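Problem: given the chain below (434 residues), write out its structure.
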Amino acid sequence: MNFIGRGWISLLLASIMMAGLLAACGSGSSDNGAAAKNGNANEKKAEKQVTVEFWTISLQPTFNDYFEQLITEYETQNPNVKIDWKDYPYDAVLNKLLTNIAGGDAPDVVNLNTEFANQMGSKGALVDFNQALTPEQKAAYFPGIYSSTEMDGKAYSLPWYTALPVLFLNKDLVEKAGLDPSNPPATKEELNEWGRQIKEKTGAYGYIFTMEARTLLEENLPFLTEDYKKAAFNTPEVEEYIHENLKLLDEGVIPKDIINYDKQVQYFASEQVAMSLSSSPFINKIKTAAPDVYNKMIAVPSPVGKAGIRFSNTMNLVVPEATSHKQEAVDFAVFVTNAANQLQFSKIANTLPSTVESAKDPFFSENDGSVEGMAKSMSAVSLDQAKDFYIGIENANDVNNAVTKALQIIYLNDGDVKKELAEAEKEVNQILGN
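Solution.
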């Protein structure tokens, strides 16, 4: 997932002020969309051609055939609607979206990650899908993924394609340590036990550790207060958890210098580590870097912490509140993310769907024995446990960065636990407006 920094947030705040005015000016258009459900209005709507501007992120030209067919099907079913599909690189789409909203020329349906959708939704710039959808439509999505942009009873996006981590094992190293790869660790406690045994028996590191803020939530540790207004992680429980990880680092169960993704690939490819929590793109990295190690790889479900959840990496569709075609935009967003279309996209894009019915398709349970097939089937069975790190958190990326920075100082640079947690607490409270 890509993130934005504080500079973008400043631009966002200025843009949202404009968006509120634009939404107010455009409210008549949304009323017309609602009124179109009535007989006479429906006739007028059928006569009037509406263009829905649809933005995606880095999907052209790879998926042109899929989207051209998708759009043709929608336009055939809705002859009064024309879809104008545009695709931008991630950095470009953020800049252009903010500029267009501020200039009164908002697109109608936009592909955003969860963090940015939360930022915009919390400022009133996006349509609330809890109001726009029927209960049946909302029930189509996995609850933990749908709720990723839900704040104060409002849901600011429709989840689209997603990804979940799996645990990749070097089968040879695991078996050399006297462990059974067909009975892999299911919990973080078991993962630590495996890691210690691997280190003792083979000399390799056990697994690659993620030094991010979300690890606290995975262990059901306090993070923010229930109203998401203040930091809540500066506690003895969090200190104890950190000291447990420091012990694993001291024992050589997990390596220290693995912040960089390429470094993680290097450790696994050189067989310096036996296990790695990652997602499907990791497979191709290893296949390219070390084909012999790729042939030793297997994929199993990622172990869960005490919270029993797995954090998803989801891309979403949003509808700006300032759109002139709110009803048509919502209808198209629902169409793109429905079960049939998500299933088709997953099959060609190697992604996971966010819809319950899509995940029931045999495609996700079929395993041809390849590591790719294992990763697909192992991650798909975890979708009902999936959640997004950014649930309900305004300025989530800044909060994440502040806590992650403190953890990295502790783990990598022997920072004082109490001091770093206190400083991170202060910074997070400032970010949240306290």
